[in-house]
Amino acid sequence: MLKYTVRRIFQMIPVFIGVTLILFILRAPGVLPGDPVRMITGERAIPDALREQIVKKHALDQPLHRQYVIYIGNLLQGDLGESYQRGRPVLDIFADKFPNTLRLAFAGIIVEIIIGLTAGIISAVRQYSFLDVLVTLSTSILVSVPVFWLGMLFQIFFGIKLKEWTGGAVHLPISQMSSAEFPDWAHLILPAITLASVSTAYVARIMRSQMLEAMGQDYIRTALAKGLTRRAVTFRHGLKNALIPVVTFVGIDFGVMMGGAILTETVFSWPGVGREIFLAVGQRDWPIVMGGVIIIVFLVMIINLIVDLSYALLDPRIRYGGDAE
Amino acid sequence: MTDHREERPNPRSGVPTDVGGHETRDEATTLPVLPGDLHAVTGLSSRTLWGDAWRRLRRNKLAIIGLIWIVAVVLMTVSADLWVAPLFGDPLTVDTTPGASLQSPSLEHPFGTDKLGRDVFARVVYGARVSLTVGVLAVSISLAIGLMLGALSGYYGRFVDTLVMRSADVFFAFPYILFAIALIAVLGPSYRNVFIAIGILGWPSIARVFRSSILSVKENEYVDAARAMGASDFRIMFRHIMPNAIAPIIVYGTMSIGGAIITEAALSFLGMGVQPPTPSWGLMLSDAKSLMFRAPWLTIWPGFAILTTVLAFVLMGDGLRDALDVKMKE
Fold this sequence. Notes:
The complex is a heterodimer.
Chain A: H1 2-27, H2 36-41, H3 48-57, H4 64-76, H5 90-125, H6 130-144, H7 147-165, H8 186-215, H9 218-225, H10 230-259, H11 262-267, H12 273-282, H13 286-314
Helix pairs in contact in A: 1-13, 5-6, 5-8, 5-10, 5-13, 6-8, 7-8, 8-10, 9-10, 10-13, 12-13
Chain B: H1 21-24, H2 38-42, H3 49-59, H4 61-78, H5 80-88, H6 120-156, H7 158-173, H8 176-187, H9 191-217, H10 221-228, H11 233-245, H12 247-269, H13 281-288, H14 297-323
Helix pairs in contact in B: 3-14, 4-6, 4-14, 5-6, 6-7, 6-9, 6-12, 6-14, 7-9, 8-9, 9-11, 9-12, 10-11, 12-13, 12-14, 13-14
């Protein structure tokens, strides 16, 4: 187990180097349009001394490979540099945004697990029933829905139309702006459902197919033959064995939600990490983009590792030996 | 691979067909065979793989609905100059007459008009051109890169395999939409760069799917046979392995077109894609955002167009997977 963990951590290194290299190539002079100093100072003319100071501070006078080494060196010491435009350390900026993203992601994962698992289990237990067809069809539709459109529809329907129809009695908050009208958690409802929509469909699909496979196994027949109730067999024998791929998916998805929530965050004006990076791309504030992506990639790798290691806890048949793949 | 087919009379000649007929037949008429061997399933060796696949596909109602919708969208948008423009108005012409903008849906403007007085129905129909072109071109680029690298990786293994698969890992490690945005920031937001960026980002999945497909196909005895007969790597690859490994790619490629359409819409929605005044569904939704509550029809129809078109490709992909008997992980 320890050997496996160490090897996995070593495997992360080349991927991590690849990611940082690509980010560096993308911002290389001549690749990315615009003069970085201009990005920092704006269009107004500046004295040469100040210009030099800025160039020094961000190591812009160094050749690219030197800049890379400096950047990685700082990174290893926990320094992600300073934003061009906001004059703040990148780490501080994301420290502000991460709680928002985490809250949204957690809420999304909860929606995904509750709705996705339930739909998948019902669908599998009642295979070919009306409910099964309904679940299967809605998952196909859900994976085809653009999330930002879904968010907009939710806002129109739950924010405005519902209010009109019920005479102002029932509606939901449509952005993160806090108000006296709603408790804090209520602001999470619509963004969380929007963010989780596509993943919920995938969870339901994976759950259904895994559950069907598990329920076809010999030990299920044995358990039924022993006289256990259907319910006990379904949950204790079927569900337990069908869960691993779902756990994998949810784990990976949690990582995806860290950075991939830009669309949901844009539609709901949610000040999260993805939106921050997106805005920084527009402003050519490259330290924020690089820092943000690196943080996300790092988190995703850690989450994936935890997910893989958790298999051994979930399934006693899986043991990571020295030579297992 | 052992051949599961039984010896059975050939309906035309009355002579038993040779067992394992494919391998001994003339090269030019060799049929591609899937690992599942569809001929064994149907019991009719005179049928072709594609004929069988089509027969199965035809029985899948949802896939056929998807196919019909795709064909309908293509026909509508290709012929749009003939009927949409004269009937509902040009998608680009701004109408400044008072009261022309933000009209709610009517007979004259079935989907209403936008804030510049342009007919939304016309813009939705013309918008299909952008979506479909970007979808097909992006996936073509992904296929070109992905198939090549996947083939190299699967066929040669070892160092090439490690290099290609590690690069794929790097691409997978990036948050997808952020990577697309960063690429567009470098390339500059435009119609052409959108499909280039989506195409570049799509190769790792194609390469992975094709690689694993090749890995399983290349274990077949007919590949060893071809090698023993002195066939070149190139010939083995293109004549013996490719035709048998391509089915998962067809399924994946079809679904990817849907994915590329959504990504194009998302990028255009964020202002990092197709630029105005080109009618694009994502761009229309971006314009609709500030008018969401005043003019909901601006939001509803472009999104509906994206949903139905993407859904059509997803249903087609599902149908093809069943028809071609491809086993894929979710």
